[in-house]
Amino acid sequence: MGSLESGSGAIRTDSSKCRRLSSIRVSRIVFLLAFLLLLLPLVTHYYLSKVESSNQTNDPNRVRFKLESLEDLSALKASDLRLRIQEMERIKGSVSSELRDLEAKRQGLQQEIASLTSHIEELKLELARQKTELERVKMSVVQAQVAQREAEQRNAPQLSLPGRLYPSEPLPVNDLPPSAISSHIYCRQYNCFDYSRCSITSGMPVYMYGDALGELSSFLHTSLQRTSSFNPHFTSDPKIACLFFVPIGHEADLSQLSHLPYWGGDGRNHVLFHLSRERLQPSAAVVASELTARAIIIQSTFSHKSYRPGFDVVIFPALGPPGGDVWQDCAPMLPARREFLITFQGELWTSDGPGEALEWALNQLQQMAAGTTSDRFQLEFSCQPATEREDLWADWSMCGTEASRQAVLRQSTFALLLAPANASLVTTATLQARLWEALRDGAIPVILGGDRLHLPYSEVIVWRRVALILPLSRASELHFLLRSVSDSDLLAMRRQGRHIWQTYGASLQSILDTSLAVIRDRIGIPPPPVDDAPSPSVFNSTFSPLKTEALVADSEAEESLGPLEPPHASPAYRRNYTVFLTQGFEMWNDWSDPFHLYPQLPFDPLLPSDAKFMGSGVGFRPIGKGSGGAGKEFCESLGGNSPREQFTIVMLTYEREQVLMNSLSRLHGLPYLNKVVVVWNSPRAPLEDLRWPEIGVPVHVVKAARNSLNNRFLPYDEIETEAVLSVDDDAHLRHDEIMFGFRVWREHRDRVVGFPGRFHAWDLNHGGWLYNSNYSCELSMVLTGAAFVHKHYLYLYSNWLPQAIRDKVDQYMNCEDLAMNFLVSHITKKPPVKVTSRWTFRCPGCPVSLSEDDTHFQERHKCINFFSQVFGYTPLLNTQYRADSILFKTRIPHDKQKCFKFI
C-alpha cells in the first residue's frame, strides 16, 4: 500500500508541472526566439573578424626570427645543463670519496675502541689478580705474625727425634757369678734387659742367628728366613743389634747357648724363639733354667715355674702359612647362631685322673648335653679311634683330623676349651692350637678353667672381648650363660676373634712381627714411620709445561666462599716418649663402644699398628709429614677444631687431556685448596704443547707406574693435608658444593663424605648382593669420584687392605670406590655421609667413561659379593641421612620429594 501511495503521489506531481507550462503565454515564447535569431549573426561576425586580424599580424619573417631565437636559447640551455651535470658528477665523486674516507676512519676507530675495550678488560682481570695476590700476601703476613707470636710465647722448643743411635760393638761379655745367673726365675724387664743397646731412636735392630739351635723343620727354617726379610727391624750387623734372635728347634741342646758368639755370658737381650707346629706336647717346650739365663723365651707352652710374667711371651703355634692373605681360610661370620650351641672333641690322658674339680665339671657338661632342650650339643671326651698314648702332662689331646675338626667348628656357635688337668701348666701348645682353630672357624671360645691360664699376648690383648673365660665352678651355669649372649654380641665377638686371628696368629709372619712388637713396646721404642708413596713427576726436570689463564664461570667468580690462602700443610704427628704414657691398652676400657678402637680398627694403639705393618716395613702416620704417629692420635683428632685447614684434590685421568684441562680450570679461585695432585695413569706422556691452566695453587702431575685404579688411593708424599678430595677428571662440581662438602667432612672426619650416593640390596630371587645406582631415600655407599676422605685411609687401603681386593680392582678395572667404602665402614661401623641433592655430577659433553660400559654393573655386583667374602660379612650400612645447606636452592623432582619430607 505504501508503494502504491508513493506512486500516486508521483503522478500528481507530474500533472501539476504540465498545468504550469500550459499557463505560460505564447507571445513570450515568440519574443525569445526572435532575440536569439538576431544575436547569433552578430556573434559570428565578431569572431570571423578577429581571426582575420590575427592572420594578418603573423608575418613569416617574424615567425622565422622567433624560431631562431628559440633554437639559440635551447642550445644555450643544453650546454649549460651539460656543465651543470658535469659539475654535479664531480661533486658526487668528491662526496663519495669523502664518504669512503670517513667510513675507513670510522672502522679504524671502531677497531681501536674494541682493542682498548679488550685491553681494559685485561687490565681489570689483572687488577683482580693483583688484588687476589695482595690478599694472599696480606694473609701470609698475618699468618707469619701469628706464628711469630706463638713462637715467642712458646715455653718449650719444638722437639723432633734426633738421629738414630747405635752401639758401636757387639754385646760385651759379663763374667757373673753362678748365683747371679741362677736368679733367672726372677727375671723381669727391669733387671734382665740391657737398655743401653736400645736407644729410643735406634728402631730396635734385631740380629738373627743363621743356624737354629736344635732340629728345625725345613718349613719353619725357610719361612723364618723369608719372613724376617720383610721385617724392618732385622739387621745383618750384630754390632748395632738391640736384640739377638735365636730360633729353637725340637730337642735343642740348651747347653749350646753359652757358645753363641754374642751370648755375652748371661744371654741378656737374647730372644729364644720356639715354634710349635708338628709337636704340640708340653714336653717339647723350652724350660727356663740356668742355661737360658737372662734370655727372653717366646713359645706356646709354659709352666708356673718357668713362666716369667712381663718378660716371656706366649704365642700361637705356627699352624698357618708363612705369610700372605689368609681370608680364604676363615669361616663366614653369618649366621650368628649355628647348628650346635657348643662342641668339644678331646681326650684327657693322665695317670692321676682328672682331679675332683675337673671331674665334677665334666659331669655337669654331660648332664647339660643330656638335658631336655632345643639346643644341640656335641661334647666328646674320648677319641674314636683312641689316640696314641704320649706324655701329654695331663693335657687334652685333639681328636680326629684338622679337616674333621674344622667341619664341626664351622657348625658351632661356641667351642669349648678345657684347661689342662695339670695345674702347674699355665698354657700349652695344644690349648693354643684349639684356640687358634676356634678363632679361624668363627666359633667363640669358651675356656673353662681359664682364670689360671695365660693366653697369647695377654698383656696387650683383652681376651674377655673375644672369649668367655670362666672358672670350672661355672660349668653348671654354662648353658644359661651361653643362651644369654645376644646375636649382636655373638657377631661382635666373632668379628673381633677373626681380627685377632688374622693379625696375630694366622701366619708365621704375623707371629714373628707381633712378638717383636710386644718387646718393642715394653722397652718404649716408637715403631718405624709409615712410608709415603713416591710422587714422581710426569715431566722431565728440564721441561716446563706451558701455562694459560684459567676460564672461570661468572657465577663462581662473583661468589665469595672463603679466603684464598697460601698452601698450608696439616700439622704433623710426631712420635715422642709420651706416646707410651697416653696410648696404653688400659685406655681401651674408657670407650663406650668396646670395638671403637680395638680390634676392629687396624690402627690400634699398640699391636695392630705395629705388628701388622712392621712386616711390610711401615708403621703409622695419618698424614704425609713427620714421623711415627698412631691411630689413637687419629681418633682424638677426629672432632678437633683446626683453626686453619686445607684440602688436597687427587684427580685420576687417562688420556682425556681437554677434559682434564677444563676440570682444572674450574678449580681457579677455590678457597682452602692446598694442592692438586693429578695421577697420570696413561703410559703416554702429556703433549708438550698442552697448556695447563693457572689456578693459583700448585698442580703436581704424578706419573703412575702402571695403569691401575688403585693409584687413586696411594698415600702420595705430595699430599700434605689430612683432607683429601678424590675427584674424577670429568666430575663437574661447583665451588659452593665443594666448600659445603669440606665443612661437612670436618665434622665427620672418620667417614667418606661426598656427593654421588649408591646402595646395595639383597637379591631375593637368586641370592647374593646387588649394586644399585637408582636414586633412593637410602644409601650405603658414597662414590669416591667426588668425595672427601682422610689420608689415613689411603695408608690403610694401600697397606692393610687384603691384596686380593686390590687384585680384583685391577682385574675388573673397576670397584676401587666400593673397596674404599667397605674399608671405612668396616673400621668405623658407620655409614658414609652424602651432601647436597645433586642427581648427577658428570660434565655435559664429556667422552664416555668406563662406567657407561654394559658390563660395568655386572662387575660391581661381583665385587660386592667378593669383598663380602674377604671381610667375612658385608660391613656396608644403610642410612637415610643427608647433609644439606639451607642456602642451597635445590629443585627436587616430584618423585623424590618424599625422600626429604623429614629433612
TrEMBL record:
Which InterPro entries does the record associate with it?
A: Exostosin (IPR004263), Exostosin_GT47 (IPR040911), GT64_dom (IPR015338), Nucleotide-diphossugar_trans (IPR029044)
Describe the location of the Glycosyl transferase domain by residue ranges. 647-888
Name the cofactor(s). Answer: Mn(2+)
Q: Name one GO biological process term.
A: heparan sulfate proteoglycan biosynthetic process
Endoplasmic reticulum as a keyword? yes
Q: Which residues form a coiled coil?
A: 85-140
Q: How does it sit in the membrane?
A: Single-pass type II membrane protein
Q: Which reaction does it catalyse?
A: 3-O-(beta-D-GlcA-(1->3)-beta-D-Gal-(1->3)-beta-D-Gal-(1->4)-beta-D-Xyl)-L-seryl-[protein] + UDP-N-acetyl-alpha-D-glucosamine = 3-O-(alpha-D-GlcNAc-(1->4)-beta-D-GlcA-(1->3)-beta-D-Gal-(1->3)-beta-D-Gal-(1->4)-beta-D-Xyl)-L-seryl-[protein] + UDP + H(+)
Enzyme Commission number(s): 2.4.1.223
Pathway this chain belongs to = Glycan metabolism; heparan sulfate biosynthesis
Q: Which residues cross the membrane?
A: 29-48
**Keyword annotations:** Coiled coil, Disulfide bond, Endoplasmic reticulum, Glycoprotein, Glycosyltransferase, Golgi apparatus, Manganese, Membrane, Metal-binding, Signal-anchor, Transferase, Transmembrane, Transmembrane helix
Gene Ontology molecular function: any one: metal ion binding
Domain of life here? Eukaryota
**What PANTHER family does the annotation carry?**
ACETYLGLUCOSAMINYLTRANSFERASE, EXOSTOSIN LIKE GLYCOSYLTRANSFERASE 3
Name assigned to this protein:
glucuronosyl-galactosyl-proteoglycan 4-alpha-N-acetylglucosaminyltransferase
Q: Organism source for this protein?
A: Frankliniella fusca
